[in-house]
């Protein structure tokens, strides 16, 4: 960790680019106060809103505004921070920033204020990421969930689990010193109970983080089906614009086409894909390969089939969607049906999870909207349960912890304590990557303080 004194003073326009009512130039670092006092031509008291004139090097007024000084460590970054709150004009804010830099500040890199808050221990890594997620949140639900992550709800659960794993590691490391005795005489039963509890917590946390990842990124829905079923037509109908090329030639779509749509303030990503079938030319086969790859990341498969003969080409689709968590079957082209489409009889694919539409006439699209909204809001219930946002990075770390923990359990069953200890260490480290806080010396401290090794 870089000691605060070795860090330079950074400055940036903290408000959004473009014109606004008010714009803020923010400084952080040991020279912030001195630089701001030169610009404001007066002394600044901590946590006082001073009404001042911001002056250039000749003493001419750049703007009038509010100067706000936060003395370290009581600031967002934990360093000395000053805000120069001016009118929100891009040209004058740039001039104010240039003036701060002429007096010794440096332009901040993206995220550098939050990085300093992390380095100063005011936020952990997951919380710092939550700041970015809060700012980027596309709807109120995602914003609330990011806010909870920023308040440490995710981090606290990770750290509680890390503490459980630490206790288990301490126990196993201690037992290694008595390796000639069977584990059962060394508290093996208690160890297994602890293990089972930690394993359950990890599963719960993994499920919560996966929901959190979906909350952050929105529902990822992939449109699949046989060629010519009307997948691209459906994407266009849902997006409300002619995004994808539609023709009556089977095999029109080859590339993946992503489109973000909002349904009543809930964001979801739709992906159009190449129709799945056997054969096709090299380009079409590459398109199908991409479609299958995209399905591995899908939360929902929207399976588009021709309502006139829903079974056509379904075999190639069925195996591609096997691992997708949810499916919705869209019977398309109902405008071409002669009989009542609500009673498809033997062609009963999808059961409850089916809707009947015409991408061309728009019939049934309201019902499809409602189904998609309900699926996206399946997660909305989480909001009430205190859901938090998470990222793929966190889910990956938890999955690694899951693997290592399973491995450790298997090694323990074989009384291979060294291997179990190593797997536990890896699991513990994977968790530590999430918050960026867990350190090797924590473990040493715990071992020495709770056991009398060498006695
Ligand atoms: N004008 C302004 N508004 C802002 C920010 C900012 O930097 N400036 N923030 C930037 O992201 C967010 C608020 N984050 C902040 C976090 C901590 C402190 C702070 O001074 N903390 C001290 C004092 C706490 C207290 O008085 O209770 C501390 O924690 O010790 C300030 C802003 C949103 N609004
Ligand atoms: N009558 C009718 N025609 C439709 C409907 N939806 C799509 N079509 C037609 O069906 C043909 C294929 O539509 P696309 O949207 O390109 O189908 P696709 O599934 O994307 O096809 P590929 O990209 O080749 O896999 C086009 O001629 C569309 O105009 C519908 O609801 N009713
Ligand atoms: Mg298409």
TrEMBL record:
Every TrmE-type G domain range: 218-377
UniProt KW keywords: Coiled coil, Cytoplasm, GTP-binding, Hydrolase, Magnesium, Metal-binding, Nucleotide-binding, Potassium, tRNA processing
Binding-site list for K(+): 228, 247, 249, 252
Amino acids binding GTP: 228-233, 247-253, 272-275
Classification via SUPFAM superfamilies: P-loop containing nucleoside triphosphate hydrolases, TrmE connector domain
Positions with a binding annotation for (6S)-5-formyl-5,6,7,8-tetrahydrofolate: 26, 83, 122, 455
EC id: 3.6.-.-
Coiled-coil intervals: 391-422
InterPro entries tied to this protein: G_TrmE (IPR031168), GTP-bd (IPR006073), GTP-bd_TrmE_N (IPR018948), GTPase_MnmE (IPR004520), MnmE_dom2 (IPR027368), MnmE_helical (IPR025867), P-loop_NTPase (IPR027417), Small_GTP-bd (IPR005225)
Annotated residues for binding of Mg(2+): 232, 253
Lineage top rank: taxon: Bacteria
Cofactor note: Binds 1 potassium ion per subunit.
Subunit structure: Homodimer. Heterotetramer of two MnmE and two MnmG subunits.
Family designation: Belongs to the TRAFAC class TrmE-Era-EngA-EngB-Septin-like GTPase superfamily. TrmE GTPase family.
Role of this protein: Exhibits a very high intrinsic GTPase hydrolysis rate. Involved in the addition of a carboxymethylaminomethyl (cmnm) group at the wobble position (U34) of certain tRNAs, forming tRNA-cmnm(5)s(2)U34.
UniProt name for this protein: tRNA modification GTPase MnmE
Organism: Lysobacter gummosus
Native organism taxonomy: Bacteria, Pseudomonadati, Pseudomonadota, Gammaproteobacteria, Lysobacterales
């Amino acid at each position: 960790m870089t000691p605060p004194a070795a860090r330079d003073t950074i400055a940036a326009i903290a408000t959004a680019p473009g014109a606004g009512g008010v714009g803020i130039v923010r400084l952080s670092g040991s020279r912030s106060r001195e630089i701001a006092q030169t610009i404001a031509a007066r002394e600044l008291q901590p946590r006082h809103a001073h009404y001042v004139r911001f002056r250039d090097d000749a003493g001419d007024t750049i703007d009038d505004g509010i100067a706000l000084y936060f003395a370290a460590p009581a600031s967002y970054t934990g360093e000395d921070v000053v805000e120069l709150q001016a009118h929100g004009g891009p040209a004058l804010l740039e001039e104010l920033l240039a003036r701060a830099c002429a007096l010794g500040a440096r332009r901040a890199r993206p995220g550098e204020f939050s990085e300093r808050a992390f380095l100063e221990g005011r936020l952990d890594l997951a919380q710092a990421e939550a700041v970015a997620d809060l700012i980027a949140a596309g709807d109120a639900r995602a914003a609330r969930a990011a806010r909870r992550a920023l308040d440490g709800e995710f981090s606290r659960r990770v750290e509680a689990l890390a503490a459980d794993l630490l206790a288990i590691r301490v126990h196993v490391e201690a037992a290694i010193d008595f390796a000639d005795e069977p584990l059962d005489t060394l508290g093996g039963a208690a160890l297994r109970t602890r293990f089972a509890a930690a394993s359950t917590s990890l599963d719960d946390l993994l499920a919560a983080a996966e929901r959190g990842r979906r909350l952050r990124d929105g529902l990822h829905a992939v449109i699949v089906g046989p060629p010519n079923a009307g997948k691209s037509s459906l994407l266009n109908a849902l997006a409300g614009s002619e995004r994808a090329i539609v023709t009556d030639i089977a095999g029109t779509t080859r590339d993946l086409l992503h489109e973000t749509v909002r349904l009543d303030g809930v964001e979801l990503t739709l992906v159009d894909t190449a129709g799945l079938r056997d054969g096709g030319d090299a380009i079409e086969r590459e398109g199908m390969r991409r479609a299958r790859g995209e399905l591995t990341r899908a939360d929902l498969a929207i399976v588009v089939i021709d309502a006139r003969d829903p079974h056509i080409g379904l075999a190639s689709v069925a195996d591609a969607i096997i691992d997708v968590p949810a499916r919705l079957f869209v019977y398309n082209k109902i405008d071409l049906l002669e009989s009542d489409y609500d009673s498809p009889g033997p062609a009963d694919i999808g059961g409850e999870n089916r809707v009947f539409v015409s991408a061309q006439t728009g019939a049934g699209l309201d019902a499809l909207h409602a189904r998609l909204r309900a699926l996206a809001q399946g997660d909305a219930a989480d909001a009430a349960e205190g859901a938090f946002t998470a990222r793929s990075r966190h889910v990956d770390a938890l999955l690694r912890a899951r693997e290592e923990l399973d491995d450790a359990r298997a090694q323990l069953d074989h009384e291979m304590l060294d291997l179990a200890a190593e797997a536990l260490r890896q699991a513990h480290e994977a968790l530590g990557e999430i918050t960026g806080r867990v350190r090797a010396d924590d473990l040493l401290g715990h071992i020495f303080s709770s056991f009398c090794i060498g006695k």
